[in-house]
Amino acid sequence: MPNILVVDDQEVVRYGTTLILQKSIEDVHVSEAGSFEDTLKILASKPFDLVILDIDMPGGNNHQMLDVIRLRHPDIKILIFSSYDEQIFGWRYLEAGADGFLSKKMGIEEIKNATKSLLRDEKYLSPALKQTLLNNITKKKTTVNPLDRLSNRESNIMQLLIKGLSVADIADKLSLQVSTVSTYKKRICEKLQVTNIVEMIEKVQLYS
């Protein structure tokens, strides 16, 4: 009987994901957590095969959540389930220790495919992300992708900036000083060679 933990701060997402899993996987047992603190408590209560994790939630800190879960539960499978752009963040989270990355824009069948792949001890990439990686391998790129120059933290903040969040909003969301986020924003603009958010969005669209 597979034991799966669905972690998301939005109740409707947890509810919908749980229904999909219960209808598509035989004898599955699904638990839910709405915060990272609850996640750690539930994971410590019994063995789990898979955690489906939203990395943008209260009490969590993106890549650090992966590190904490991996340290305490080295054998558990982790599927990142995120609204972040998979073309920018998918490979980063796989490199950080996740077993798969699934965009919330994907349909029900892809949720089933991703979950079943990880339960079979396989990695998961969406068809679109697989194609992007294959394209990057099979053709020699003459230009350097400026997005690759960004650190994981810079990438996270950039994604929030292009979503329309202000520096103050981001500081509050990530529990950082406003001055710290301003410094990150300046550094991101320098690395991408842009001067405003509109240009940043255009640069991301060009290189994603």
Automatic annotation (TrEMBL):
Keywords: DNA-binding, Phosphoprotein, Transcription, Transcription regulation. It holds the Pfam family GerE. The keyword Transcription applies. Residues 143-208 form the HTH luxR-type domain. This is DNA-binding response regulator. The modification 4-aspartylphosphate is found at residue 54. One of its GO terms (molecular function) is DNA binding. It comes from Chitinophaga silvisoli. Residues 3-119 form the Response regulatory domain. The keyword Lipid metabolism does not apply. PANTHER family: NITRATE_NITRITE RESPONSE REGULATOR PROTEIN NARP, TWO-COMPONENT RESPONSE REGULATOR. It comes from the Bacteria. One of its GO terms (biological process) is phosphorelay signal transduction system.
